[in-house]
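Hey, can you fold this one?
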Amino acid sequence: MSIEDRLTDADLLWKHGRREGALLGVLVAVAATARKAFPEITGDRASFEAFMKTTHGWTIGVENRGQVVDLDHLFYKWLRCELVHTGTLPVDLRIEDQLGDPNANSVRAGGAADYTVLLGPGWYHFLVNAVRNAPANTDITWSTAASSAPQ
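Sure. Predicted structure:
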């Protein structure tokens, strides 16, 4: 199995509406790419967040559980770790297909009563493209099967 396999599997799941499984697959590909990109960094979280910072030139802070957290950290702790360690997303975080343009990277921190962080589906495509375009992955010949096109 390879990073390319993770993206191919993730796209298959995404196209069939299996959002959490698709996110887990793409986040595994992000983590593997981060380890390739930053072998000198000790720790999965540190390399994951360092890699994510190379994929964009912005910082987005979002309120989650009473704290403002960087979106890169949110992806690691509340998406990747929760899916790996509990098998599901936390009740206060979800992918919201109706949150704006599917090509946009939309995020909304909901207030009372549910305090839920909503992520638009564009984030899935952003993560796929981050892996596919990573300089650390230039050794991979990407198949046409793995596509980041919104559905």
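The beta strands are 61-64, 67-70, 93-95, 107-109, 117-119. Let me know if you want another pass with a different chain boundary.
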